[in-house]
Amino acid sequence: MRELTYVARNTVEWREAPDPKLRGDGEAIVAPVAATSCDVDTAILAGHSFIDPPFALGHECVARVVSTGDAVTVVRPGDLVVVPWSVSCGGCGHCRAGRTAHCTAVPHMAMYGAPIGGTWGGLFSDLVRVPYADAMLVPLPAGLDPVAMASASDNWSLSWRLVAPHLRSRPGARVLVVARGSIGLYVADIARALGASTVLHVDPDPGHREIARGFGAVTAETLDPPIHHGFDIAVEATGRVDQLALAVRSLAPEGVCESAGNHFRPGELPLLDMYLTGVTLRIARDNVRAHIPDALALAGSGTVDPGRVVSHVLDWEQLPEALPEKHLKPVFVRGEGAAAMS
Predict the structure, then answer these.
(1) For residue 334, what are the domain limits?
(2) Which of 30, 139, 228, 270 is most buried, taking the most CB atoms under 10 A from its CB?
(3) pTM, entire model
């Protein structure tokens, strides 16, 4: 089989790899049919990763199940499934508590798309081995478009977690989104659908701001100076500490800020301001498996439209040329995936 491999800044190529094999009765082999780039893939391709190439890329996809071990009961060959970005067993203490990104049955930070916590391959591959298939794989509900939901492995479900639980406990909250890509747009859509009284979406890209306005958000190119006590919830998804600082300085007393940015570079936060306001800040690796069912249910409700964030639908064979290009949210579709979606 082939796996798409990051080899140098803005350069990926197909490389041959052995076909994955089932190593136990609880495993599955899947074939991605609609895969997309995560916002962090853009940073990796730009050369900002702390991991040296080469390594297989990709950690967001809807896939078709090819084969399963005898003990797998949740899915069967032919099913369309969401493949979570992190590897988890479902049975350890962390997994049972919903902390699936910290599973103790696998090396710390085991994941697809980067050689962290072992080598698990990437979801821009022709075939992928999924251990703990019953715990990991989530069947795609009937009626959901695999192209629109290609990001459910990470960004869509992460976006649900960044804002939905907070709006549940703070109905009608004012929400600030400081972003540079798809996560911020997903958050804006979800926040308005779940009853935020105001959503301000800050992004320097005019095309992104146009999409956010279509979701009912107010938009701005920059947030400087910050809006004093302006928001109950802030979501930062830029990977820039200066933007995170602006977000937390815009919070109302006892406000909460979620940072989804991968902060590869150091910076300073306004700790005294945060102390005086009573800010809660979480910068966390996402336990996405625990949130995928709720995120898919919201997508199926008709109150949100994740498909509007998809910027391009491209053929699987275009991956080496198209992935390094600056697209908002390209989805790469294989031939059999296109048949499944017709």
Answers:
(1) 2-154+287-341
(2) 30
(3) 0.95
